[in-house]
């Protein structure tokens, strides 16, 4: 953390300290202290735990870690809205019961169909669009769609404490990446504006794509199917393929992130794993072991024994969303 010393009156010094706080939305306490202590240790050349800037790699899940994920993954809610619009123009797109339920907003039926049901909706709404066209659809949706509980734009439901942490890490020479089960093209549409993370630093689930020319214009087009699922054990594989280095810091919120954090913290030298525990039913949502979305068992049971930091949202965050105080 950069420090500037001012010889001035006490109120000026106090104001300077407040302005220099790297994590102002984090509550005073052990979680905040540990994050700052870790960053200071690995960035201080005089510290035994110093890590060269080239190796300061930090990776974070997206859904439930950097922005909300209830009552369903936001990409899925985007797909539902797009399916409804498509069906209004051509009802024939609702070619099976899962798609009909999705168009009616029947989340329960779609979720009960499992991964196959979700893939049906994704294929119907994503495939056939050039990547640039798809991302334009995502950005247009973010402009107009509102969350059913908070009334906020979905990209206003990024977590302010995590946005601060990402900025703090980059200020201290870290390179930050998203490693998420979400679709890579969906996330790349907004991650730079939302988090300061450019598209090349996004690792996510890869849908099938194909190369074609239309009217003489070459395009990469989204196709049905999944080429690579960046979830659970797939996350360390995705990191190895896309980044090529084991991170020294990894953060997530569910058992889908367990392997990524386990692999990160098992490496030599200073390491930090953190779990965002959704404990705040008043300001956000409270869920963990029994949730259909963002289920958290192994992280709670095994994480503390492996030295992971469990962040209690209700206690450790003074503010939740970037778009609401």
What does this 3D model show about the protein?
With 325 residues, this protein is α/β, with parallel strands linked by helices. The protein has 14 helices and seven strands. The protein has helices spanning 10-19, 30-43, 74-89, 97-103, 107-112, 114-126, 131-144, 160-171, 184-188, 191-195, 234-242, 258-265, 298-302, 313-316; strands spanning 57-60, 175-183, 202-214, 217-228, 249-252, 272-277, 309-312. A seven-stranded mixed β-sheet has the order 4-3-2-1-5-6-7, with helices on both faces. Helix 3 (74-89) packs across helix 6 (114-126). The longest helix is centred in the N-terminal third of the chain and has 16 residues, at 74-89. The chain is globular and about 65 Å long.
Strand content: 15-25%
Distance between the termini: 26 Å
Rough outline: globular
Into which percent range does the helicity of residues fall?
A: 25-40%
Pattern of helices and strands: HHEHHHHHHEHHEEHEHEHEH
Number of strands: 7
The biggest sheet, with number of strands, parallel, antiparallel or mixed sense and barrel status, is: 7 strands, mixed
Q: Give the oligomeric state of the chains in this entry, treating copies of one chain as homo and distinct chains as hetero.
A: single chain
Please state the structural category: alpha/beta
Q: Would you tell me the overall average pLDDT?
A: 93
Query: Helical stretch count?
Result: 14
Low-pLDDT residue intervals, each spanning 5 or more residues: 1-18
Q: Strand order, biggest sheet? A: 4-3-2-1-5-6-7
Rg result: 21 Å
């Amino acid at each position: 953390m950069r420090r500037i010393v001012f010889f001035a009156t006490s109120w000026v010094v106090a104001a300077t300290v407040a302005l220099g706080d790297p994590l102002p939305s984090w509550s005073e306490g052990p979680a905040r202290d540990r994050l700052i202590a870790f960053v200071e240790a690995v960035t201080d050349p005089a510290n035994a735990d110093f890590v060269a800037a080239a190796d300061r790699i930090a990776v974070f899940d997206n859904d439930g870690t950097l922005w909300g994920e209830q009552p369903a993954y936001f990409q899925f809610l985007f797909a539902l809205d797009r399916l409804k619009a498509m069906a209004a123009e051509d009802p024939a797109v609702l070619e099976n019961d899962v798609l009909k339920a999705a168009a009616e907003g029947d989340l329960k039926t779609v979720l009960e169909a499992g991964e196959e049901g979700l893939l049906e909706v994704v294929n119907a709404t994503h495939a056939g669009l050039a990547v640039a066209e798809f991302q334009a659809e995502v950005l247009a949706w973010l402009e107009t769609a509102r969350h059913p509980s908070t009334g906020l734009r979905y990209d206003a439901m990024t977590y302010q404490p995590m946005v601060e942490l990402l900025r703090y890490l980059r200020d201290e020479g870290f390179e930050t990446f998203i490693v998420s089960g979400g679709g890579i093209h969906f996330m790349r549409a907004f991650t730079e504006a939302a988090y300061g993370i450019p598209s090349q630093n996004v690792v996510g689930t890869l849908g099938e794509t194909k190369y074609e020319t239309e009217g003489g214009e070459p395009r990469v087009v989204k196709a049905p199917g999944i080429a690579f699922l960046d979830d659970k054990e797939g996350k360390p594989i995705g990191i190895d393929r896309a980044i090529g280095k084991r991170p020294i810091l990894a953060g997530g919120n569910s058992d889908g992130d367990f392997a990524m954090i386990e692999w990160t913290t098992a490496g030599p030298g200073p390491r930090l794993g953190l779990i965002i525990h959704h404990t705040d039913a008043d300001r956000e949502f409270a869920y963990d072991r029994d949730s259909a979305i963002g289920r958290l068992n192994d992280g709670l049971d095994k994480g503390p024994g492996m030295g992971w930091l469990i962040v209690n949202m209700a206690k450790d965050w003074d503010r939740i969303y970037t778009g609401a105080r």
